[in-house]
Write a structure and sequence with these properties.
electron transport; two-stranded antiparallel sheet; Cytochrome c class I; transmembrane helix; Cytochrome Bc1 Complex, Chain D, domain 2; Cyt_c-like_dom_sf; 290 residues; mainly alpha
């Protein structure tokens, strides 16, 4: 190849590379609105973003992997914690974490109700942005895992296609054979529902996180149903567990970490996001924790 041919090759290659770059840039900009959930940017979301910056939340937390890595990443926080929990936490973090025991404590920001509502709206908008799995290994809130986080992208894509009786598997769900019992199926729901039950509950005795430990929940429920402390409508353990999943405020577990103003911090979305079959499987799994 002589000099003229080399120069021509370089010019053509540069031109093709530039054209591909411009095409990909145009394609990315074309998808920005969809990828960033732009239609959901409300005045409350904008206000929440302003509160986020005004209080320098990024000095401790990260969003989309950007920020300090001292406190949990909040990219998907509304998928892991409900609105009632976030509202109470932002009001007074000291009710949830002890500085001496946890060795860190979020400072009380003295936020107004409007600021808190805006922050939660901002977090919810962020949580619904298609971040395509980034960051890959965020620092999560205590005890939580993102559904399917231990699966490759290809495995998660395959899992999403799994159906049982016409019911799509939860995001990140692992494949199951058709002969698995309800307890095994319930454990699968426990770990892969959105938000995952493991985000707030431990199955280890005495390990209370955002929600109480579920170790021995069957025995505790039997004792509760026979006492005057129970305020719900359930008549047996299975009905109580079902009630706790679909209507968590029917009976409030004592403690400022679990409820406020008569409302449980447990998400109320399971009643519509899980099928009746999945809820029954989850109850079967919890019933096995004697």
């Amino acid at each position: 190849m002589n000099k003229r041919q080399t120069r021509l090759f370089a010019i053509v290659a540069t031109g093709i590379s530039a054209a591909v770059f411009l095409l990909l840039t145009f394609d990315s900009h074309r998808k920005f609105d969809a990828l960033t959930n732009a239609e959901s940017i409300t005045p409350a979301v904008v206000h929440g973003k302003d509160v986020w910056h005004k209080n320098n939340c990024i000095n401790c937390h990260t969003i989309f992997g950007e920020g300090a890595y001292y406190a949990p990443d909040l990219t998907k926080i509304t998928k892991l914690r409900g609105e009632a929990y976030l509202k109470a936490y932002l009001k007074d973090p000291s009710k949830f974490y002890d500085e001496q025991r946890h060795r860190r404590l979020m400072p009380k920001q003295d936020l107004s109700d409007e600021d808190i509502a805006g922050l939660i709206a901002f977090f919810d908008w962020v949580s619904n942005v298609d971040n395509q799995g980034w960051p890959p290994r965020p620092i999560l809130v205590t005890g939580s895992t993102l559904p399917g986080a231990d699966r490759s992208a290809a495995q998660q894509a395959d899992d999403a296609k799994i159906e049982r009786g016409g019911i799509a598997a939860p995001p990140g769900a692992r494949p199951l054979s058709g002969n698995e019992d309800p307890i095994a199926l319930g454990e699968r729901v426990f770990r892969t529902a959105t938000p995952a039950c493991t985000a707030c509950h431990s199955t280890a005795p005495g390990v209370n996180m955002a929600g109480p430990s579920l170790a021995g929940v069957k025995g505790r429920t039997e004792a509760l149903l026979g006492s005057a402390d129970y305020k719900g409508q359930a008549k047996d353990v299975a009905a109580y567990l079902h009630e706790s999943i679909v209507s968590p405020s029917a009976h409030l577990v004592p403690g400022p970490m679990y409820s406020a103003d008569g409302t449980s911090f447990m998400p109320t979305t399971y009643a519509k996001d899980l099928t009746a079959e999945q809820i029954d499987q989850l109850v079967a799994y919890l019933m096995s924790m004697k």
